[in-house]
Structure formats: C-alpha cells, structure tokens
Specification:
The protein has seven helices and ten strands. By secondary structure, it is of the alpha+beta class. It has a three-stranded antiparallel sheet with strand order 1-6-3, with helices on one face. Strands 2-9-10 form a three-stranded mixed sheet, with no helix packed on it.
Length: 273
C-alpha cells in the first residue's frame, strides 16, 4: 500500500466524531455521574480506535479506471505493462468464500463522518446500553445490569467501524477510483494481547492458507484468491507496451494458460511516450 494511513484513516475520522459527541453532551462527559456506563463505553472505544494493533485486513486492489495515464505511470512500469480487466462480481461468486467482500473505496470525508456518526449513535441513543445505567434490587442493593451489554455494544460498534475502514480513504487518493476485494480474519475486536499469535480459528473460511513473502526488508502475510477464467474479460496494452512480437507473445501466453477464456485484447488510447 502506498497510503500509510490505510484503515487508521477512518479510525481517526470516527475518533474525531466520537470526541465531538462527547463535547456536545451526547454521552460520556455529559453523563450525570462520573464513571457511568457511557463514560466507560466512550473510554473503551476511544482506546480501541487509538491503538495500533496488527490489523488483519487482506486486500487486492483494483481501479475502476481502465485506461488512466496516472495508473499506467504509477502501476504499470511507466506504461510498458498491461491492464487486466476483471469481473469482480464473478470472482467473488466463484470464490465461494463467506469472508470475501467486494468494496468500492469512498473518498468523501463528509460522507465518512456521517457514516461514523450513524454507527456511533448506537452508543449514545436513548436505547443504547451505554445509557442504561444500573438497577436496584428489592433488597436495596445497587446492581450493574449493563456492564456486559455495554462492553458488547462497544465491541459491536468497533467491529462495524473496522469492517468499513478498508473502503474509506484520504480524498487525496480519489483519482485512483479504487475497488477492493477484502478478506478479514475473525480476531476478536477487543483483544489487546497476542493479536499476532496464530490461531487457526481466526482464519476460518479463508479462500486459501496464509503464506508470507518478503518486501522492503519486511515480512508480509497474504492469502490467495483464484481468479476464474470467466472473470477475465480484457487485456489492455499500455501506451509504451512493446511492438507486435510482444503483443503476440501475450496472446499466446493467454491462449495456453486460459484455453477457455474469452479475452479481448485492446490498445491504450493514451498518447504517452
């Protein structure tokens, strides 16, 4: 990824909206008693949004722009490569993977704020567990009836934010017109320790085993999603792609590897040299 704020961008947006709600008295600091359930819920959620865990998000990134000069220059060897057109809906259906999601990346910051506000209101709304307080038994002793439900609400809210985080990005990247195929593990959202410890239950329903490759002196985990032939639709040659012999070799390669494929071969319309 060339955006170092992947995932954390939306967490920052949500944390800002959370703080605004608290300042406006929607919850937290606006509660009648210090240490109320809402105070605790806000504190816990803010801590979850601030931490820097090893977030288990696996993504393959595509662009809705099939012949864009900035994409050629940034991702295809300065226009010498090819752009492969893939039907992502067909890919997701054929993969038959319950944790695989197709997500269109959204760059509008106001839309991101509205969405985070919608999710966060489940903590501050009238029926939220964060505002349910405590109950008094017949003997007169005060009992906490909502501590477990409050914790569950925080986890549920965080999970909703985390599930959306891969599809919200900094507006500066809007020109990429990105679409993603995303896979997430089943790591508990409130787990603070041993998040990097391998647990096969976390990777249940994955499309393939987790493997690793080296990149930029680091180790990167990945999984594989097989692309069915029916999902491959087009190969577009870049504006600086080699001559006839190279194009013929690409056609020969596709014919050998994808004998049942119906792939269209076209040239870029960009007049770039």
């Amino acid at each position: 990824m060339n955006d170092y704020k992947e995932v954390s961008w939306f967490f920052d947006i949500a944390r800002g909206v959370l703080d605004e709600n608290v300042e406006q008295g929607s919850g937290g600091a606006g509660s009648t008693s210090a240490g109320s359930e809402c105070d605790i819920a806000v504190f816990k959620l803010r801590r979850m949004l601030e931490r820097e865990p090893f977030d288990h998000v696996y993504a393959a990134c595509f662009s809705r722009k099939e012949d864009d000069l900035s994409q050629w220059r940034g991702y295809a060897n300065d226009g010498r490569g090819v752009a492969i057109g893939i039907d992502l809906d067909a890919l997701c259906v054929k993969a038959n993977c319950p944790v695989l999601r197709r997500m269109c990346v959204k760059y509008d910051e106001e839309e991101q704020r509205r969405e985070s506000q919608r999710i966060l209101m489940s903590l501050f709304g009238p029926g939220s567990s964060g505002n349910s307080g405590s109950s008094t038994s017949s003997s007169g002793s005060s009992t906490s009836s909502s501590s477990s439900s409050s914790s569950g609400s925080v986890n549920r809210v965080f999970r909703q934010l985390a599930n959306l985080a891969p599809c919200y990005k900094n507006p500066a990247f809007a020109d990429e017109g990105e679409v993603r195929v995303v896979v997430r593990t089943r790591v508990p959202p409130d787990r603070e320790l041993d998040r990097a410890k391998f647990d096969k239950e976390w990777f249940a329903d994955f499309p393939g085993p987790v493997r690793f490759f080296e990149s930029c002196a680091g180790l990167v985990p990945f999984t594989t999603v097989r692309v069915p032939e029916c999902a491959l639709r087009i190969v577009r040659f870049g504006p600086k792609f080699g001559g006839y012999a190279n194009k013929a070799a690409i056609r020969l390669f596709c014919g050998k590897r994808l004998p049942k494929g119906r792939i269209e071969f076209v040239d870029s319309r960009a007049s770039y040299r």
